[in-house]
């Protein structure tokens, strides 16, 4: 169950990062409120996961899901462009997240 909570926390991490961009520096009230709600949800599910999982495992996976998810949202919805080197390092980040999961024993 902790892994599911951690994944949900990571999804909310991507959600609030996206709505923060859409808030245009917190100048759009609806997206500003969604950002805060997303932050609270993300921290709530991270806190639930971290009760069971080691912090040294949960936190980097949470931030990794948020980072990779935000990169993908940026590419597909905001038309961000990444250099070949950046794409390479994003791939390493994904490999690192998978490696942590596979070798963690949790």
From TrEMBL:
Q: Which domain of life is it from?
A: Bacteria
Compartments reported by the entry: Cell membrane
**Membrane-spanning intervals of the chain:** 29-47, 59-78, 84-103
Bilayer topology reads:
Multi-pass membrane protein
For this protein, the record's InterPro entries field holds: Small_drug/metabolite_transptr, Small_multidrug_res
Keywords in alphabetical order, please: Cell membrane, Membrane, Transmembrane, Transmembrane helix, Transport
A Pfam family per the record: Multi_Drug_Res
Entry similarity comment: Belongs to the drug/metabolite transporter (DMT) superfamily. Small multidrug resistance (SMR) (TC 2.A.7.1) family.
- Its recorded name reads Multidrug efflux SMR transporter
